[in-house]
């Protein structure tokens, strides 16, 4: 019992926990943005940054009075104060723990989205150790200083009360009767000189603080002055996920309802290739362009916008097509000889699939950072170990690594050997970037050819995807397979390839849960009818159940899918079906664990102050997934369908580590370039090996697949007609033709500046007379989606991180001069950024930055229109 005698009283301790937690949170908050604040302004306005904290502390001190049995209201006050203190203590611990894990700060406005998702909660709980450590430190400091904080704050409040009661309000009441004579100027004569000086100082300081508060710039000082627990209200008052969709998933509008009868006279008819009952995903093709322009048509103006919903490629000012360009000559030669046969398509999405590790080779900023962890005398050995880490990736891309002696790496030890002749193997895209550092938003680009919605998390599941996705395209091809028309056509054309009459089967497979952030709904909306996921592996009624243990908070290692994939390949080989398999890997996701029977190697040295364990764990998962890709390729060989299968491999996003950028790690609200460089590969053993240098994104995957199917004559005439008609409607370019980074425009085409409306910018992005170059703009949403957008343009080295909220900064970088993005420029306003960019990089870079900012803002609003989205 003596132990309890040394414990501080509960009330002073709780108050100290609030003070320490609140000030620790504010210190971290300011420190994270200090580098972007002008020193003079920071010194001038710094007193205003703690005003809210002072008010919270004073309020808590008033609540936290030592309770007495006689006053019941005082007990209630103390309980409320205690709850407030615990909330601040806990929130500050979360902020510091999150910072220690990622280098970023918590966005409370987005937290409610994560708290409502069980799988997301597992992600948050993975950082419980750092949160506990931060909470322990805050509690320890509070325990050491609790009596002093409580006593000093009480004295301060008492002094203020006494100052304004003594000599000023002494005559305010007399026997309960107000005496207002003290309000006259004569009350000043009743104060002594010392009290007068105190009042004057307080009035002067208060006036100065009020003046600074009213005159300071709102950005960023309003954001920096926020105090716990007031900022916690964002989690309740701001909905980061609020959808009032104008078009629900798979919603189909009657063709002739609500249409102006005059439209029928304009000669529009349904596209000849469109079946009478098309599958989901084609509703916009059931309406004429004129119908889309009828403003009183309720089907298209559910959001009361100035422009109708749905994407119209003919009105897209940013669309650049390369379909009028010639196919690469080596590819054309292969097509003309009918050497390329595509009966099946596999799309593999690599979780956290950085281009620098696909394959791992010398010459990248990441490789240099890895070598820096080793002493100089060990670097040759480190090089030889690193370049042999991903042998399958080397064979798939044709980018063969060299060892410390400059010799090509020997790959004979890999679990799969490429049987394609030298110079064959397909397309390898170098310079690709992702459209989102959030996995499922990235999947929308690769599977549906659309840009994602710039809002937090997967709100796209509540809306209709504005382009047909791959499963829906293949289902469209299936619409007459097996019908009388299809059978008679096949029988008449005896020279037709057998695959033409076979139906497509679209299957989705991953070894983890599909319940995180509504992925199951997304897959359904994309048109997948067959799936194998974690619930399949754990079901007692499944053909094959998981044999190993779960490796992370999502599920199992990819190897648990092997019997299912093999069965699918066998079915494709023998049952006369055309297979489309979409497979997402997951082992390379945090916390980067591997199965127990997998040998982990040491790739990192001990040099430097950085903890290299996370990077080393990641590299081991990369090697594991590289071996898994080898197993997939080997199964294609074993089942005999490798020569008729197109394998597309793309990274969903990268993964930033401390070795890349010491200040921030991970993908959450981190726009660093290491989160955006991804591989894109189109593997086919009968296609010539081509390295394509293009600043493309995954929205080019569908146009490239369609173009390949058409040019290789892998579709029958009817399917080819549909594919050709749809090909030009997608926003991305086909990568079997030279990529067009920019075009010269008609000088008068876009001279009109954008007009502002209440909620939208006009359909034309910013353009000035005399500026006649239209860039191929790329946009990359920053996880979780609604805070920032990365803007780049093909053919230029510049990159802009565009903030969508006031609590984020503008960031500019030149990837030619700073490929690792180690020294970007930061500013709170575009005006400040342009001044810095012009000074350091020149007027051309500043002009590009101005255009990128305006185009980016236009694109954000345009995407909301394309998706039929508005916030409630």
From TrEMBL:
Sulfatase N-terminal domain boundaries: 508-709
Polar residues bias (residue ranges): 743-760
This protein's UniProt keywords: Membrane, Transmembrane, Transmembrane helix
Start and end residues of each stretch annotated as Disordered: 743-775
Transmembrane segments: 40-64, 76-99, 119-145
Pfam families the UniProt entry points to: Sulfatase (PF00884)
PANTHER family linked: SULFATASE (PTHR43751), SULFATASE N-TERMINAL DOMAIN-CONTAINING PROTEIN (PTHR43751:SF3)
Protein name: Sulfatase N-terminal domain-containing protein
Species in which this protein is naturally found: Penicillium diatomitis
């Amino acid at each position: 019992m003596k132990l309890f005698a040394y414990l501080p009283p509960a009330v002073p301790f709780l108050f100290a926990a609030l003070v320490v937690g609140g000030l620790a949170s504010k210190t971290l908050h300011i420190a994270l943005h200090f580098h972007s604040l002008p020193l003079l302004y920071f010194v001038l306005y710094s007193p205003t940054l703690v005003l809210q904290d002072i008010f919270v502390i004073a309020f808590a001190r008033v609540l936290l009075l030592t309770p007495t049995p006689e006053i019941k209201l005082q007990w209630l006050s103390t309980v409320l104060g205690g709850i407030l203190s615990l909330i601040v203590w806990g929130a500050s611990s979360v902020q510091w723990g999150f910072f220690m894990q990622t280098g970023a700060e918590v966005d409370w406005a987005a937290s409610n989205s994560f708290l409502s998702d069980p799988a997301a909660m597992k992600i948050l709980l993975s950082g419980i150790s750092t949160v506990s450590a931060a909470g322990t430190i805050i509690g320890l400091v509070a325990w050491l200083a609790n009596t002093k904080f409580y006593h000093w704050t009480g004295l301060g409040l008492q002094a203020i009360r006494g100052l304004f009661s003594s000599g000023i309000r002494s005559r305010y009441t007399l026997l309960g009767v107000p005496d207002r004579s003290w309000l006259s100027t004569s009350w000043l004569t009743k104060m002594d000189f010392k009290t007068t000086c105190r009042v004057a100082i307080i009035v002067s300081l208060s006036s100065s603080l009020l003046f600074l508060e009213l005159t300071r710039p709102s950005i960023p000082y309003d954001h920096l002055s926020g105090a716990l627990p007031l900022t916690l209200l964002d989690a309740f008052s701001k909905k980061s996920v609020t959808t009032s969709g104008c078009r629900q998933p798979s919603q189909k509008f009657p063709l002739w309802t609500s249409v102006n009868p005059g439209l029928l006279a304009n000669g529009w008819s349904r596209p000849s290739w469109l079946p009478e009952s098309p599958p989901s995903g084609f509703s916009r093709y059931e309406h004429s362009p004129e119908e889309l322009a009828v403003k009183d048509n309720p089907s298209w103006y559910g959001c009361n916008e100035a422009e109708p919903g749905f994407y119209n490629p003919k009105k897209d000012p940013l669309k650049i097509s390369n379909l009028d360009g010639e196919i690469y000559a080596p590819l054309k030669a292969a097509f003309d000889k009918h050497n390329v046969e595509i009966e099946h398509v596999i799309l593999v999405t690599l979780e956290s699939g950085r281009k620098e590790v696909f394959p791992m080779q010398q010459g990248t900023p990441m490789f240099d950072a890895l070598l820096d962890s080793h002493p100089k005398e060990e670097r040759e050995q480190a090089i030889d170990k690193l370049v042999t880490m991903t042998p399958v990736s080397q064979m798939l891309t044709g980018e063969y690594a060299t060892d410390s002696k400059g010799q090509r790496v020997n790959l004979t030890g890999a679990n799969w050997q490429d049987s394609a002749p030298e110079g064959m193997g397909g397309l390898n895209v170098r310079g690709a970037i992702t459209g989102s550092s959030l996995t499922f938003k990235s999947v929308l680009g690769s599977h549906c050819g659309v840009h994602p919605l710039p809002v937090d998390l997967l709100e796209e599941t509540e809306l209709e995807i504005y382009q047909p996705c791959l499963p829906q395209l293949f289902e469209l091809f299936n619409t007459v397979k097996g019908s009388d028309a299809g059978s008679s056509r096949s029988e008449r054309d005896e020279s037709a390839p057998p695959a033409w009459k076979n139906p497509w089967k679209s299957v989705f497979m991953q070894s983890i849960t599909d319940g995180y952030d509504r992925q199951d709904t997304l897959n359904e909306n994309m048109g997948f009818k067959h799936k194998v996921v974690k619930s399949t592996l754990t079901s007692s009624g499944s053909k094959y159940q998981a044999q190993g243990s779960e490796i992370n908070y999502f599920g199992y290692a990819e190897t648990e899918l092997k019997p299912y994939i093999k069965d699918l390949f066998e079915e494709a080989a023998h049952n006369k079906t055309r297979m489309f398999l979409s497979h997402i890997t997951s082992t390379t996701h945090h916390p980067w664990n591997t199965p127990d029977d997998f040998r982990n190697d040491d790739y990192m040295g001990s040099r430097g102050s950085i903890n290299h364990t996370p990077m080393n764990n990641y590299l081991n998962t990369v090697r594991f997934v590289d071996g898994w890709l080898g197993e997939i390729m080997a199964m294609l060989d074993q089942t005999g369908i490798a020569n008729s299968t197109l394998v597309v491999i793309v990274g969903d996003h990268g993964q930033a580590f401390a070795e890349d950028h010491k200040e921030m790690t991970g993908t959450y609200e981190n726009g660093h370039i290491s989160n955006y460089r991804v591989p894109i590969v189109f593997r086919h053993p009968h296609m010539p090996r081509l390295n394509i240098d293009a600043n493309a994104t995954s929205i080019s995957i569908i146009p490239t697949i369609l173009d390949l199917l058409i040019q290789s004559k892998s579709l029958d005439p009817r399917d080819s007609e549909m594919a050709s008609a749809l090909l030009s409607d997608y926003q991305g370019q086909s990568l079997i033709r030279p990529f067009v980074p920019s075009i010269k425009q008609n000088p008068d085409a876009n001279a009109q500046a954008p007009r502002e409306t209440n909620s939208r910018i006009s359909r034309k992005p910013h353009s000035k007379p005399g500026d006649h170059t239209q860039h191929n703009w790329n946009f990359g949403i920053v996880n979780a989606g609604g805070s920032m957008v990365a803007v780049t343009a093909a053919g230029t080295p510049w990159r802009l991180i565009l903030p969508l909220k006031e609590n984020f900064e503008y960031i500019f970088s030149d990837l030619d001069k700073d490929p690792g993005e180690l020294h970007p420029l930061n500013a709170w306003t575009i005006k400040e950024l342009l001044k810095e960019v012009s000074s350091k990089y020149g007027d051309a870079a500043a002009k590009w930055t101005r255009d990128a900012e305006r185009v980016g803002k236009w694109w954000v609003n345009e995407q909301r229109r394309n998706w039929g989205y508005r916030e409630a």
